[in-house]
Design a protein that fits this description.
By secondary structure, the protein is of the alpha+beta class. It contains 10 helices and 11 strands. It has a 5-stranded antiparallel β-sheet with strand order 1-2-3-5-4. It starts with 11 loop residues before the first helix and ends with a helix. 37% of the residues are buried. Residues 40-245 form the Aminoglycoside phosphotransferase domain.
């Protein structure tokens, strides 16, 4: 989104919620970092309040969080406990709100280290490997990815790509699809494992918590990893594949994830810039250049060998 976030509402509603949880008015303050989907308040040292922004889709995101987080915690995923959820609260002009335990740590400045990314992979394996409860499945969208070919040809027709390059790209994507297993089992994904949603231990840099479940969906598990910079994928996938039950083929997983990165990168090119955002994929060319960076700077083995083996058609 390019628009500036709405001004955070006054503290009256947040203070009313805080009092019900034994937190004094003086201990209520807006969080320094505000989210896209919700206004965030700190209620003392132990609680966080998130209120959905006015747009209808943001209420749905908060509703999803209230549904998915207890399931993730039951699996052992490190994410803060839901203390209270309320629909259509009068104190917030009818918007729903969510109160959670406050996870302490620091945000990931830039990108987390290799160890934290491996821990993230293990957390995601817990989530993806588990059966999805019926109530959770009913409350989150199914995210399906179609054939990118027509969209690539449309970009060529618009002059965004040359026709020959569009054909070459379509061929490479087909080659990657053949290297991956067909029809992967849909799983519950977090949907936004960007660095901004990771909390790290202030002393060790270890992963403390995975935050913000508003983009949760039922999808191909490889979709999850499109939010990780390509040069950091080996660390996340190493932790992930080690924690999955049963054998896992790293080459197949790398092909699946690279397919998603390429598709997202190409379709981001003709979209407007986001000058207010600084995360790794914020600007139109960032994703494509990050893929080039991963190839140019070299990945650790065995991933580097796999990347070199992917001869382009």
């Amino acid at each position: 989104m390019t628009a500036s976030p709405p001004r955070i509402p006054d503290l009256a509603g947040a203070r009313a919620v805080a009092r019900r949880h034994g937190v004094a008015d003086a201990e209520v303050a807006p969080a320094a970092a505000q989210g896209i989907a919700g206004f965030v308040y700190l209620l003392g040292e132990d609680l966080v309040l998130k209120v959905a922004r006015p747009e209808p889709e943001f209420a749905g995101d908060l509703r999803k969080e209230a549904l998915v987080i207890p399931h993730a915690r039951a699996l052992g995923v490190r994410t803060p406990e839901v203390v209270e959820y309320a629909e259509a609260d009068d104190g917030f002009d009818g918007a729903p709100y969510l109160v959670q335990r406050r996870a302490h740590g620091r945000g990931a400045d830039g990108e987390p280290g290799a160890a934290a990314y491996r821990e993230l992979g293990r957390e995601l394996a817990l989530l993806h490997a588990a059966p999805i409860p019926d109530a959770v499945r009913a409350g989150v969208p199914a995210d399906t990815v179609g054939d990118p070919g027509p969209g690539i040809q449309q970009l060529a027709a618009q002059g965004e790509l040359s026709p020959g390059l569009a054909d070459w790209l379509t061929g490479w994507l087909a080659q990657l699809a053949q290297a991956a297993p067909t029809d992967p089992r849909p799983v519950l994904i977090h949907g936004d494992i960007a660095a901004g949603n990771l909390l790290l231990d202030a002393r060790t840099g270890a992963l403390s918590a995975l935050l913000d479940w508003g983009d949760a969906a039922v999808a191909d598990p490889a979709t999850e990893f499109a939010k990780v910079p390509p040069r950091s994928l080996p660390h996340v996938l190493d932790g992930y594949l080690d924690a999955l039950p049963g054998p896992a083929d790293g080459r197949q997983w790398a092909a699946r994830v690279l397919w998603h990165h390429l598709v997202w990168a190409v379709f981001r090119l003709p979209t407007p810039p986001e000058p207010g955002w600084v995360h790794w994929s914020a600007q139109p060319a960032n994703r494509l250049l990050e893929l080039l960076r991963a190839y140019a700077e070299g990945l650790p083995e065995p991933w580097a060998g796999w990347m070199r083996s992917q001869r382009l058609p």
